[in-house]
UniProtKB/TrEMBL annotation:
Residues 54-116 form the MobA/VirD2-like nuclease domain. Residues 383-433 form a coiled coil. It comes from the Bacteria. It comes from Methylotenera mobilis (strain JLW8 / ATCC BAA-1282 / DSM 17540). It holds the Pfam family Relaxase. This is Relaxase/mobilization nuclease family protein. Keywords: Coiled coil.
Length: 451
């Protein structure tokens, strides 16, 4: 078993979920076995991803088993549970969203997963913050490797021993028609080089470059520390060859020996297993402390020291320009909230009006009449606009909760649950904007938190 993380995460929510649940694979071939959702709600995952405004919106990957490894359904659920506890320690299902889908169309077992990169609105202190189960860095790679080693040992599976002669393909080469041509060329080069190394024709990098030039007609355009840039016959652009074979200090006979050894089953000794468990627990503890501090702990209020002998600074940016920028941002937030709030859920279901709806609507009318009747400062006008929007979103949120509680079937309940999540997210944004305005103009910040 091994965990692979895909190089994706910038598309809309429909893209990864459509691939996970589609009846065809990345090459367009019909899947012999249809995908099966093991955990999560596909539509909710789509909605959460689409609510994220940052560039990197989600992490996707798969837990892949060898053809000889046949985990039971019960074991699959245990692995999913361990995966979430390992890489999301300290958090609960209310704090983050995830989707796990079973694939068996390639002959082996694969658990594909998607994690939106955002803490949910249900979280008290971390709502809307960036969340990443696979952050960049060497330590995180070691974290995942440790999880793989411990899990394989627990399940009685052989450890994953890297083969230095195995070709590593990019997602582009594996999933696109143009990339598959590069993939075929890499295989051709690799086979020729391995054969020459085995026959003793290649003993150093100079021999390797000579072999590529004289026997394969490949032009070397650049030699890096751990790669070669080459132009294939008739090609306009150079391609980069990476891997142990193309490193400047490669030990070719040693690579052959390591490759043969990697094909033999290897298991951890009791001492190695215990050491790996300790290492994994240390990784989990470190991430748990980070999650608690980042998402579950109230943020301290920023303190501003009094400025002594302030110096006036000349600027070419006019105050009206700054106000215009702020107004544009506020209008966008209000427009987005009202658009989602006024969007009618489908299919409609009977509504049970909650007790405080009339009161809220009365407040909306009162606020609107006051806003139109008096001369107010820009800050007060901004707050009035936000208050009216918040009141309307709260009204629709209470209505959606009432409809969800009285849904006739699970399908209607699921759709209404998604609407509740969307409205809560917008409510969080509106309250955050109101807090920003109050801090900016030195107004009281004692406002009730969104429900």
């Amino acid at each position: 078993m091994i965990v692979r993380i895909f190089k994706s995460g910038v598309s809309n929510g429909e893209s990864p979920v459509k691939y996970l649940l589609g009846n065809t694979d990345h090459a367009g071939n019909e899947r012999a076995v249809k995908p099966e959702v093991l955990e999560g709600n596909p539509q909710t995952t789509i909605d959460v991803i689409n609510s994220i405004q940052r560039k990197y919106k989600y992490i996707s990957g798969c837990i892949s088993f060898r053809d000889s490894e046949k985990p039971t359904k019960s074991q699959l659920y245990e692995i999913i549970d361990d995966f979430k506890k390992t890489f999301c320690p300290g958090l609960t299902g209310d704090n983050f969203n995830s989707l796990f889908v079973l694939h068996k169309d390639k002959g082996n077992t694969e658990i594909h997963f998607v994690f939106p990169n955002q803490i949910l609105a249900n979280s008290l202190h971390g709502s809307g913050r960036r969340f990443n189960i696979h952050p960049p860095g060497k330590q995180n790679i070691q974290f995942f490797e440790s999880f793989v080693k411990v899990t394989n040992q627990k399940l009685g599976y052989a450890q994953v021993v890297p083969d230095p002669l195995k070709i590593a393909f990019t997602d582009f080469e594996r999933k696109t028609p143009e990339g598959r041509k590069d993939k075929s060329n890499k295989r051709w080069i690799q086979r020729s080089v391995i054969k020459a190394v085995t026959n003793g024709e290649i003993k150093n990098r100079d021999d390797l470059c000579r072999h590529l030039d004289e026997n394969l007609g490949i032009t070397i355009t650049r030699q890096g520390k751990d790669y070669l840039s080459v132009k294939l016959p008739g090609a306009l652009k150079a391609k980069r060859l990476r891997g142990a074979l193309y490193s400047e200090d490669a030990d070719y006979q040693g690579l052959i020996t390591q490759s043969i050894a990697s094909k033999q089953p290897h298991y951890l000794s009791p001492t190695e297993f215990k050491a790996e468990q300790i290492k994994l627990n240390e990784f989990i503890h470190a991430r748990e402390q980070f999650n608690i501090k980042a998402y579950l702990t109230p943020r301290p209020m920023r303190r501003f020291a009094k400025q002594i002998n302030p110096h006036l600074t000349t600027t070419t940016r006019r105050t009206t320009m700054a106000k215009a920028d702020h107004l544009a941002v506020m209008k966008r937030i209000i427009h987005e909230a009202l658009f989602i709030s006024r969007k009618k859920p489908t299919p409609p279901t009977p509504v049970r009006v909650v007790p405080n709806v009339k009161t809220i609507r009365s407040n909306v009318t009162s606020i609107r009449s006051k806003a139109l009747g008096a001369t107010k400062s820009p800050a007060t006008l901004d707050l009035d606009a936000l208050k009216m929007t918040i009141a309307e979103v709260e009204t629709n949120l209470h209505q959606a909760i009432g409809e969800m509680n009285n849904a006739k079937n699970p399908a209607d309940a699921a759709k209404l649950q998604q609407r509740v999540i969307q409205l809560k997210i917008q409510l969080e944004k509106l309250h955050a904007e109101m807090m920003a305005i109050k801090i900016k103009f030195g107004l009281s910040t004692n406002t009730p938190k969104p429900k």
